[in-house]
Write a sequence for this structure.
């Protein structure tokens, strides 16, 4: 396992969400995503010794954790876009480098895209995570999904089914109660 990051003025805090749970991780902005996944897996295992997290079996390897960033960081209800696509592009570049000599500048640029800062994240950024399942593997292979999946709530983007990320974003009413009826008013600061 990778060593934990010791918080410093230069480390970032990432919020990793699944269902109603949020896990805070301290990361280096240039830390590769593989080690971020390893830290996340370590945190999930430490807090769920039963081996199950929200009804999903916790995987044995960090490569079975998928990450996604918010389409709009100000409105998490708009959905998530997978970071795996960016990593696949990085692997293609690495494959091309193996067939010929790449410049040192290009190699450092490619390495920069496999880190939180290179993926366009910021300190306090929000990521969704889920565990790889058979459906995810079939989607990666390009297998066809049955019409039942579309009826079960899969969002369609063009001809491709959008990935389903289990993130519950509480509404204002759930967070503060019904403000109009006075319920939950103790949670709001008073204007004195």
């Amino acid at each position: 396992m990778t060593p934990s990051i010791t918080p410093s003025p230069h480390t970032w805090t990432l919020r990793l969400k699944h269902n109603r749970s949020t896990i805070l991780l301290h990361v280096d902005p240039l830390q590769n995503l593989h080690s971020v996944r390893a830290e996340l897996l370590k945190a999930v295992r430490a807090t769920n010794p039963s081996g199950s997290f929200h009804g999903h079996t916790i995987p044995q390897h960090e490569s079975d954790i998928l990450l996604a960033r918010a389409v709009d960081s100000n409105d998490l209800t708009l959905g998530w876009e997978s970071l795996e696509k960016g990593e696949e592009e990085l692997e293609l570049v690495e494959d091309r480098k193996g067939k010929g000599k790449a410049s040192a500048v290009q190699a450092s640029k490619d390495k920069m895209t496999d880190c939180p800062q290179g993926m366009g994240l910021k300190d306090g950024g929000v990521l969704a995570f889920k565990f790889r399942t058979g459906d995810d593997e079939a989607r990666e292979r390009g297998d066809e999904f049955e019409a039942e999946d579309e009826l079960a709530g899969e969002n369609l983007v063009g001809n491709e089914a959008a990935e389903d990320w289990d993130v519950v974003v509480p509404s204002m009413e759930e967070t503060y109660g019904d403000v109009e009826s006075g319920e939950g008013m103790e949670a709001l600061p008073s204007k004195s």
Confidence is low (pLDDT under 50) at residues 89-94, 100-108, 144-162.
